[in-house]
Amino acid sequence: MTETLGMAGAAAALGIGLLIGLERERHKGSGARRGSAGLRTFAITALLGYAAMQVGSALLVGIVALGLALLITVAYWRGRNDDPGVTSEVALIIVLILGALCTRSAELAVAIGVVVAGLLAYREKLHDFAISQLSEAEMRDGLVLLITALVVLPLTPDRYIGPYAAINLRTLCTLTVLLMLVGAIGHVAVRALGSRYGYAVSAIASGFVSSTVTIATMGHRVAREPANLRTLGAAAILSNLATMIQVGLILATVDPVLLLTLWVPLLFGCIAPLVYSACLMFRGPPRGAEQTLPVGGAFSLKLALVVVLTMTAITLVSSAMLSHFGQVGVMLTATLSGFADAHASTASIAGLAKAGLLPREAIVGPALIAISSNSLSKCAVAWVSGGRRFAAYVIPGQVLLTLAMWAGTFWH
After folding, report:
1. What pLDDT is attached to residue 400?
2. Taking 60 as the threshold, does the pLDDT of residue 141 lie above it?
3. pTM for this model (two decimals)
4. What is the DSSP string of 337-406?
């Protein structure tokens, strides 16, 4: 019955007007500086937009919006003061449009209304964040990330080109965006949680994108944050947790039986970095000595491009080996492709076993070789990105992880 009478849409429009109007009423002031629009004005305007859309469609809504804009201009001119803000005036027009939108998509209109109310309510905090918390370098990096992700990436062709059809421009651009996103996630986590726990949390999360890239990002931060050397090394090792979990998920997705052949090595591969990283994080300098917050940009575009180009070169070599040697070169291909990405190599090996081209129990060796070669590449990345001191913390952890996995094989 309410749907027939259109009451649901009208109720949504009224709710939007009351919500935004309530927020504006609390900030409209009093006396001579009192604002011209409050709770009742916003509620009536939302219902006006809904009624105009019901009666005369979009044309009438446009005419009403022009009239409302004229009234707002007159009220703004008569009540001018030292504050030139037009937030309430713009919000009033938005409420009119949202009221009209309730005739077609009440859910979308309500969602937009809640977002608008939130933006209005947190005005001071947003202003403080933009002026005091957000640096010029962070603003620049954020714009670069958004342009690359929302403009460049959708326009990049999604097809394989080059020798052995191994290069996909969409994949390369996606990887570049992910690398920048990894750095940004780590930057935000450290700003929110502090260096000791922020880097650990961000490393595990970004490790699901690429553990190798995470290590490179942590190494790159060493030059700017030398006081956090041990924390950065521990975070780099913790990123391997994501690698172990992803390998297990890949095996379980391809064929759950495959996971049974590797669950013990993967478990040992999770325990080793946890123990090693805990020793680095909690047996370091006194509390507070490693709390230097990051300065500068949120990520390094140069580092992202270098890592992408390196992985592309390794992919070309791996594709050539697979093309020339076929299944006979599974071990060699696993070793080479593992330098770039242990997940892709493990997935290809699991696919061979699923297709019956490789015995299920025979995947243990190639899979561990791929992870081991990936661990070796992480050691090289740690040395190149963070220097000798950073590598001195990362390399022992990677060696311990690799030995633990092979020990788990014999245990199993």
Report:
1. 92
2. yes
3. 0.53
4. HHHH-HHHHHHHHHHHHHTTSS-GGGGHHHHHHHHHHHHHHHHHHHHHHHHHHHHHHHHHHHHHHHHHHH
